[in-house]
Write a structure and sequence with these properties.
Elements: E1 3-6, E2 9-12, H1 16-29, E3 33-38, H2 40-48, H3 50-58, E4 61-64, H4 67-75, H5 86-100, E5 103-108, H6 113-124, E6 129-134, H7 142-151, E7 155-159, H8 164-176, E8 180-183, H9 187-191, H10 200-204, H11 208-215, H12 220-223, H13 225-239
Parallel strand pairs: 3-4, 3-8, 5-6, 5-7, 7-8
Antiparallel strand pairs: 1-2
The protein binds uridine-5'-diphosphate.
Length: about 240
């Protein structure tokens, strides 16, 4: 199956390799495209917020970020082939950047964080081009839009937190004219060394959410959406 539906949100059934292939197709085509990395919180938010829902409906690709989405796909009897975490997707893009000559622009995170992330990324992936960096606590964005349009990156990474980042991209996507835009949540914090990712064994065991909860107990309110999400998925299955 190419796509599966979870609580009315269409998720693309793609491996990481296939998402990378989609990125190259979008770059070749040149039309502005939005890639959303969907986790259970994003799907729950889409149920409450119609303008966010429109972002998911209009996105060119919606990938399954988060073990909760994989569990839901199995509960529904339409298992997705792979989890594609946003941070793994951007890491894979950075790995290919020098060879494929991708030009990036970063928007988001606290002042200084995206710069530190960019410096670390340049060290780790020599030859990568990051043509612009802008922190995510701006009031006015006209100058940012102009700068992006002028620098013409291939890939725009936006870290303003889920929901906000996708809405920001959607509203400006035609004006900025970047072929590929991706909402990347807390990824710049990780690349800057401000936040750590869970150890690999926890990632593999589907426990990354638990690690984030232990590191940031204030996320408990957000995490409680996961059981609510799975119950809603089960209820939707009974109805069909
Ligand atoms: N952020 C930002 N501007 C804002 C709100 C948030 O740049 O107005 C940044 C914040 O500094 C962090 C990222 O957005 O780097 C959100 O990280 P989080 O891990 O909370 O991502 P989420 O899980 O919401 O996608």
């Amino acid at each position: 199956m190419d796509k599966i539906s979870i609580l009315g949100v269409e998720i693309d059934n793609l491996s990481l390799e296939e998402v990378l292939g989609a990125v190259d197709r979008y770059l070749k085509k040149g039309d502005p495209s939005l890639i959303v990395t969907a986790n259970p919180e994003i799907i729950m938010l889409a149920r409450e917020d119609a303008s966010f829902r429109a972002c998911l409906d209009e996105a060119q690709t919606v990938v399954a970020d988060g073990i909760g989405i994989i569990i839901a796909s199995r509960l529904l009897g339409t298992p997705l082939k792979q989890r594609v975490a946003g941070i793994d997707l951007v890491t894979a893009l950075f790995e290919q950047a020098a060879k494929k000559k991708y030009r990036f622009y970063f928007v988001g995170a606290k002042p200084g964080v995206a710069e530190r992330a960019a410096a670390n990324i340049k060290d780790s992936y020599p030859g990568i081009e990051i043509v612009g960096i802008q922190h995510g606590y701006f009031q006015e964005d006209a100058a940012i839009i102009e700068d992006i349009a002028q620098k013409k990156p291939d890939i725009l990474l936006v870290a303003l937190g889920m929901g906000k980042q996708e809405k920001w991209i959607k509203k400006r996507i035609q004006k900025i004219g970047v072929p590929v835009s991706i909402g990347v949540g807390g990824s710049f914090d990780v690349f800057a060394g401000e936040a750590r990712r869970a150890p690999v064994w926890m990632q593999k065991a589907g426990l990354e959410w638990l690690y984030r909860l232990l590191k940031q107990p204030s996320r408990i309110g957000r995490m409680m959406k996961l059981p609510v999400f799975l119950l809603a998925v089960l209820a939707s299955k009974k109805k069909n």
